């Protein structure tokens, strides 16, 4: 009988299943004519954990460009942050909106 050689290579046709990194999604605040700049800054600091300087920069993007990218997050975190923004805005009677889109 011939000796069987052990082969450490993968069998032909099989691929290695490596875990993939989760896709990132952008959370974007949208401008409106009623939400105050101070409220937007508060949202950015308390919900998104931005520094005051970064929050002010993003708020100015929202104000001047009509939208501002707040950050990149996995899908479930991005959706949770968007829900938190909408809940806080509604509680304070502001129409502030944010959207989540694929990065």
CATH architectural label: 2-Layer Sandwich
Q: Outline the low-pLDDT stretches.
A: none
N→C terminal distance? 59 Å
Total number of helices: 3
Main sheet record: 3 strands, antiparallel
Annotation, overall tally of beta strands: 3
Query: What order do the strands of the largest sheet run in, or round the barrel if closed?
Result: 2-1-3
| CATH class (first level) name | Alpha Beta
The helix/strand order is: EHHEHE
Describe what this molecule looks like in 3D.
The protein is α+β, with helices and mostly antiparallel strands and about 100 residues long. It has one domain: Ribosomal Protein L30, Chain: A (2-Layer Sandwich). Helix content is about 40%, strand content about 20%. It contains three helices and three strands; from the N terminus they run βααβαβ. It has a three-stranded antiparallel sheet. Helix 1 (about 35-45) crosses helix 2. The longest helix has 17 residues, at about 75-90. The protein is elongated and about 60 Å long. The relative contact order is 0.25. The model has no long low-confidence stretch (mean pLDDT about 90).
């Amino acid at each position: 009988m011939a000796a069987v050689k052990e082969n450490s290579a993968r069998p032909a046709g099989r691929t290695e299943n490596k875990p993939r990194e989760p896709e990132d999604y952008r959370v974007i605040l949208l401008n409106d004519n009623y939400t105050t700049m101070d409220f937007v800054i508060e949202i950015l600091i308390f919900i998104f954990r931005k520094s005051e300087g970064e929050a002010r920069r993003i708020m100015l993007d929202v104000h001047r460009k009509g939208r501002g990218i707040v950050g990149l997050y996995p899908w479930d975190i991005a959706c949770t942050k968007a829900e938190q923004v909408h809940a806080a805005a509604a509680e304070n009677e502001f129409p502030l909106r944010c959207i989540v889109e694929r990065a």
